[in-house]
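Bug #77: duplicate submission created two jobs. Keeping one. Sequence:
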Amino acid sequence: MIRFYDDYIEKIFKWGLVISLAVMATLNFSNVISRYVIHASISFTEELTTNLFVYNTFFGAALGARRGAHLGLTILSELVPPKFSKWIIVLSSYASAALFFVLVYFGYGMTKSQFDFGQTTAALGLPEWWFGLAIPVGAFVIGISFLIAGTEYMIKEGK
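Kept job's structure:
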């Protein structure tokens, strides 16, 4: 499972982040040029950029969770002996994973309702669930990332 994540899932998220940021930068640059050259804004750029930003948030958070790059409150783990500190860190990783799995549940409900009601975006008329899908999918990968990180820490520190 860990190898599959490292070989495939993480690479998909990395490339998704790169492509999404490139599209966002191109759209925003084009919109700025359009405003100064033809004195008109490209209407859909704000909508697309905002929705891509949601995907970027989850892509980046998943990559950060896997590497242990998220900020943490270490006061409790620093106050206890090292053998207990390991368990606090592992428990924290697993609790974070549980939180994101709860977000998967509620994100799925939101996305399903967007699909069922046929909601579309204002400027482009795209199905809203395309962008809402970022929440349950991203939260699932973040949850898996925290599980993997916690398990690896437990194995590494157990030696």
